[in-house]
């Protein structure tokens, strides 16, 4: 089993759990914010809160979806599954990094922020770095096939003689193939 696969699998599971926690807490906070209940002792907030919560929920949903696709890649561990896992993980990381910037802005503005809001801020900041680490681990095959599925594998289509022009391919006269 590849080294990158052994490290990426537990990190994938950890990120999945953290994204679910962010989704739950951010959804609760956004519901309180929309209802105008910012006086709740475990909430609070400031001018950046609405934007931060929206992008946190978006990052959590994209992160959860990317972890399901990443789980398929960890199971198959091939270059063709890496394309989907890498693309969705890159998008999830980009939106998580954007949410981290808003978390930093919210922390910088200050004011009363309840414990649930601080948990969302902390998890988004942590997820930005763990998601980047996960993204680098699944792409480690670029440097060596020992760490991941190498990008140079070209034997995926050899079993289909119709598309390879192999021995079983006989063109029929009068048709376009």
Task: Summarize the structure in words.
InterPro entries: AWPM-19. Pfam families: AWPM-19. The chain crosses the membrane at residues 7-28, 48-70, 82-102, 122-143. Keywords: Membrane, Transmembrane, Transmembrane helix. The protein has one domain. It is built from five helices and no strands. It has helices spanning 3-34, 49-76, 79-109, 115-138, 161-164. It is elongated. The two termini are 42 Å apart.
SSE blueprint:
Layout: H1 3-34, H2 49-76, H3 79-109, H4 115-138, H5 161-164
Quick structural overview:
The protein has 177 residues and is mainly alpha-helical.
Described by strand count, sense and barrel closure, the largest sheet is: none
What portion of the residues fall into strands of 2 or more residues?
A: under 5%
Briefly note the structural class of the backbone. mainly alpha
Number of strand elements: 0
Cα(first) to Cα(last) distance is 42 Å
Can you give keywords for this protein?
177 residues, 0% strand
